[in-house]
């Protein structure tokens, strides 16, 4: 019935800051950028190499995330990488704070977390 996740939607508090983070820092490709005047809202469609997408939205005065990461709803977004240690170093070289690398007790794969400008937990997960 379902084939894969098409996109994940994220609402940000500072559109320009988040746009810079996802496109310039993380390197996601812009598919489309639209301003919806009736909602005073931007919608930025971003592509990952496998075809999956992130929709980045801005809305006036969105409520803050209740807690991190155990709030009801989306817990975190996991991004698969070839080399967790190399990716961690690249993110740190760009000024991001990245947690120490851990090992998934069930899969044996390495992973770690960092946060977007609004504190959304983003996971780096090894192949």
TrEMBL record:
Domain of life: Bacteria
InterPro entries registered for this protein in UniProt: Fosfomycin_Res_Enzymes (IPR051332), Glyas_Bleomycin-R_OHBP_Dase (IPR029068), Glyas_Fos-R_dOase_dom (IPR004360), VOC_core (IPR037523), YwkD-like_dom (IPR037478)
Pfam families the record matches: Glyoxalase
CDD domains found in the cross-reference section: VOC_Bs_YwkD_like (cd08352)
Keyword Metal-binding: yes
Regions that span the bilayer: none
Keyword Manganese among record annotations: no
Keywords, alphabetical: Metal-binding
Domain VOC: 4-127
Entries under NCBIfam families matching the protein: PRK11478.1
Listed name of the protein: VOC domain-containing protein
Lineage, uppermost ranks: Bacteria, Pseudomonadati, Pseudomonadota, Gammaproteobacteria, Vibrionales
